[in-house]
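Figure S7 source data.
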Amino acid sequence: MSMGTGTLHNYINGEWRVSGATESMPVMNPATGQVLSQVPVSPATEVDLAATAASIAQQDWRRVPPQERIQYLFKLKSLLERDFESLAQTITIECGKTLKESQGELQRGIENVEVACGIPTLMQGTNLEDIAQGIDEIMIRQPLGVAAVIAPFNFPAMIPFWFMPYALACGNTYIVKPSEKVPLTMEKVFHLLAETGLPKGVVNLVHGAKETVDAILDHPLIRAISFVGSSPVARYIYSRAAEQGKRVQCQGGAKNPIIVLPDADLEMTTRIVADSAFGCAGQRCLAASIALTVGSVRDDFREAIATTATERKVGFGLDEGIQMGPVITQSSQQRIHGLIEQGTQEGAQLLVDGRNRNIPGYENGYFVRPTILDGVQAESAIATTEIFGPVLGLMHVNSLEEAIALINQSPWGNMACLFTSSGAAARKFRYEVEAGNIGINIGVAAPMAFFPFSGWKESFFGDLHGQGRHAVEFFTQTKVVIERWPKTWSRQF
Ligand code: NAD
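Tokens for the predicted nicotinamide-adenine-dinucleotide complex:
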């Protein structure tokens, strides 16, 4: 079903099906507050239908040679490119980010399809002859069976693509449970998946929320779960799915620090940090949310970032010249307002206050303008609470060592960035800092599709991350074969 105010359908076993859900939720345009559609909270019986169909389909799918399986992905890439603009618009309409940001995330998603097209090489095993005389040993990779992704709202297109193309290319069948806040993008993608001619049951779309997720976690036919979302839910999913013996990877929340050294290029640093903190309305898991200034750069950076924050053009992401859209829901807007207030109560000063400013023409939208809290105290709750909105906290320290120590005492470990012109400082930072994605003069250190998305600490639960070779390992199980063929058993040649 395309965009309208009706209820979305599930895609199970190659067919669009009306959900029998007794509960549905509205899908909103966060810039206007307009209801776009209703999403069903699919019950366990529908997860069962999808898992059963996927399990049956997997018997044949795993036998399709890898180089034939990837032909569907090549087709998918060309369809995603054909419909690029309309998909990007859908992302903006349901998620709120600017059209340019939507195009960017879609491009990142497509790159994962491209990498997964290398599966005939990436999925190869290893072997060694003569582990004892006349005995050979080979390691092969086989698919797991049925796998599923549970996705967050902030990247409706890209995040399912961190997993799905690899799962399919490796011979698994798949279930996608998009975020109930942004289900329309995946619905469009599933129309394209259907157009590729993939055999029925290979990919399935099941809409829903907690009830649906719990049914996925408990379903005995689903062997592997990929989750991206907030850390409390990540922890819950990790433990519940692992308890059932499933393979699980859960990417969680973040509070990402950046350090500005006195020798950084101030103009470039300010521009990049502002894009990181306020881009996607601060709703990236790799958004900069704490800036630690070191030594003499404090005042100049504070002034420059405040000016940049104030000048940012906020509005509906499809409108010309808009640099930042709304946050996802009204409750998110209220939560962010509350956390800004909490920051001031904990001793920070409001350098730029982005609350309660209407956007002309979009009075019903969930906007928060860029906000800067200065003088955030290291021991305050706001220093480590994920705000997930366009709010940057400023802290000041006297040395790089002090900054690194502060970062390393944080429970989070998704990203940390350093702005400097010193190679030695960069090397020390890269070596010592406890986070999985590191940027040097980079504000959003998002790994490309051929590298793992490497969160650490409370930002990740599991072992193998999304994307690239990690995804190939996650979606395959190894089998080791030891072979002996004595000469006496064969004709002499
Ligand atoms: P969320 O945790 O609220 O929801 C994520 C998914 O989990 C959704 O599909 C939702 O339906 C489901 N879910 C929510 N509550 C549940 C529950 N109690 N039981 C079972 N399932 C439940 O996250 P969100 O608000 O959609 O996304 C924002 C969060 O995601 C932020 O914390 C952000 O940092 C994080 N994120 C992390 C990464 C990363 O790579 N580490 C990337 C993007 C987003």
